[in-house]
Amino acid sequence: MKQYLPILALCACTLFSCNSNTGENKTGTQDVQQFIDSYTTEYVKLYTAEQEAQWKSNTEIVEGDSTNTINAQKADEAMAAFTGSKENIEQAKKFLEQKDKLTDVQVKQLELILYNAANNPQTIADVVKKRIKAENEQTRLLYGFQYMFNGKKTSTNYLDSVLKAENNVSSRLAAWEASKEVGKTLKGGLVQLRDLRNQTVQALGYHDFFTYQVSDYGMKTDEMMQTMDRLMNELYPLYRELHTWMRYELAKKYGVKEVPDYLPAHWLPNRWAQDWSSEVTVKGIDLDKVLKTKTPEWIVKQGEELYTSIGYQPLPPTFWQKSSLYPYPADSNVKKNNHASAWHMDLDHDVRSLMSVENNAEWYETANHELGHIYYYLTYTNKDVPPLLRQGANRAYHEAIGTMMGLAAMQKPYLAGRGLIDANVKTDSIQSLLKEALNSVVFIFFSSGTMSNFEKSLYVDNLPADQFNAKWWELAKKYQGVVPPTNRGEEYCDAATKTHINDDPAQYYDYALSYVILYQLHNHIAKEILHQDPRATNYYGQKGIGDFLKKIQYPGASKDWRKVLKESTGDELNAKAMLEYFQPLVSWLQEQNKGRKYTLPEKL
Ligand code: X8Z
Ligand code: ZN
User: Fold this and answer.
1) Distance of CA 13 from the midpoint of ligand 2 (Å)
2) Engineering a disulfide at 447: which of 278, 456, 512, 552 sits with its beta carbon 3.0 to 4.6 angstroms away?
3) If we measure between CA atoms, which residue out of 455, 523, 474, 479 comes closest to residue 236?
4) Strand pairing category for 482-483 and 263-264
5) What is the pLDDT of residues 300-326, one digit of tens each?
6) Could you state, in order of their start, the residue ranges of all structural domains in the chain?
7) How far is the CA of 176 from the centre of ligand 1 (A)?
8) Model pLDDT for residues 385-429, shown as the tens digit of each residue
9) What mean pLDDT do residues 278-285 have?
């Protein structure tokens, strides 16, 4: 999720008194606290202005009118000038020289001040300025883009629906290609952004922008990439079965006699092949069918109700007034960012979501995901967490909780309890598990594999501009077993059709880690709180879950994430819970795949 530096907003007096109470007796902490307080005041002011400007430029994109883009740029520049100023860097460094005299929370804030500075060093103000301009222009190009299908103006929601429902392979190909056209217009900007992003952080001693982003976890690039590999290796036997099963299944569905060795990208129900779950409909639990009878508004409200049922407060009225939750018409002159996001506008209670919700299962899950961010914001906005530390325990945590709620809200006992399906209908639990694996397990190979390795190559290895598309498809083949429908030359930039490559750069491993964490949390919730099978839970009305999650969320980033994980689940970061969850599926798939040709190598 795109986060513009963390910061506060709000009632400075409460926050400040809490800050100055911490460690007042230690020598030097008066000075340091004064510095942190005054930094915070200015930061919150600039952050709020920046968020407002970005909100406007992401929700009102008008062809031929760049006012909002320019205003966003100016707000970004003001923030950069402050956070990257020589004085702030020097001061923070000076105080950190006497770490032992400071409280943990002070150290964390000073480190954050330096982390923010590294992305905006004013010693190279011209580079930072160019980067900001390029970033805002890239957003405008991506989200101001008019998608066309069969000669008509269309939307990504529509193209997605074709990829989910269309059985005619030529029509699928046309929709897939239409969805990739935008990449061509983004390539130049991406090349420029890669260089500028690297240059900015290099000024403060980071090797490259990817390494900078990874350092937010207290990790080095190698360690992160090894974590990605470890994760994929653990899940690979299952992925290989799923891949084999899917090749045969889709060949049958499209009436193709010769089963392809690799999955053609346009055969799959998602633009990036990151989620194949809509290929399976579990009899008796057809959520898409149920949701056709509901409105998009109902979907968001239903999400809120799940959260309030476990003990969260109703969303503040401003959430409903100020969010932008539904799509604009496909041919509207005004366009908006069509990818879902959640915003903490002022580091206080102005929380908003930007979505394009339609009444289908994918948006049902996404709405729950975004509300996870929103309730995370609201929970760490408290007197004990200084504004600078109003962030997730780490970025993956922020992604994990909402996704977990989304997945839990698709399990049978929950849907039956909400009256969305018939509780008495017999359903096939293996089919349910298969559907879930086609979401979660498949996603790991996109996020840890293709995305993370592409961005590593882009930033760390300085991938030459004439190899972007070749690299992208080399990785998609290796990790996902997916190939492009036709040869895709370097005039295309298929990686850039993924929003994160442009506007949430070098962070996609967050999502991979979030899945691992969420299965650890869910496993704990099911077994220790609900005493239910993790594969068949009903979270609704269970205050114990709210208590458990709030305990994780409350301290924000003021507590070390490894400690948070250990304290909440009793374990380190690992894929055990996820593996255990899907275990029953492995033998079923092996049985289905008997006699079939496996085309992925035995080992990744
Ligand atoms: O980008 C997102 C969220 C952003 S808050 C909607 N997700 C990833 C994606 O869409 O690629 C959620 C899961 C993966
Ligand atoms: Zn998110």
Assistant:
1) 31
2) 512
3) 479
4) parallel
5) 999 999 999 999 999 999 999 999 999
6) 4-143
7) 19
8) 999 999 999 999 999 999 999 999 999 999 999 999 999 999 999
9) 97
Query: Could you tell me if the CB of 371 is within 6 A of ligand 1?
Result: no
- Phi and psi (nearest 5°) for 263? -75, 120
- Residue (of 123, 131, 98) closest to 23 by Cα position: 98
356 within ligand 1 shell (Cβ under 6 A): no
Give the per-residue pLDDT at 2: 64
What is the share, in percent, of the chain residues with pLDDT greater than 90? 95
Q: Which of 369, 370, 504 to mutate to test the pocket of ligand 1 (most atoms within 8 A of CB)?
A: 369
In terms of DSSP H, where are the helices of 144-295? 156-165, 169-180, 182-202, 209-214, 221-253, 287-291
Question: How long a stretch of residues is the chain?
Answer: 604
Cα separation, 499 vs 354, in Å, equals: 14
Res 3: pLDDT: 59
- Cβ-based neighbours of 171, under 8 Å, separated by 6 or more: 162
Judge if the beta carbon of residue 340 lies within 6 A of ligand 1.
Answer: yes
Q: Is the pLDDT of residue 444 over 50?
A: yes
Tell me the HSE value of 373 on the side-chain side, using a 13 A CA sphere.
24
Cβ of 341 below 6 Å from ligand 1: yes
Where do we find the tokens 């390795």?
453
In terms of Cβ atoms closer than 10 Å to its own Cβ (0-12, 13-18, 19+), residue 249 is: middle
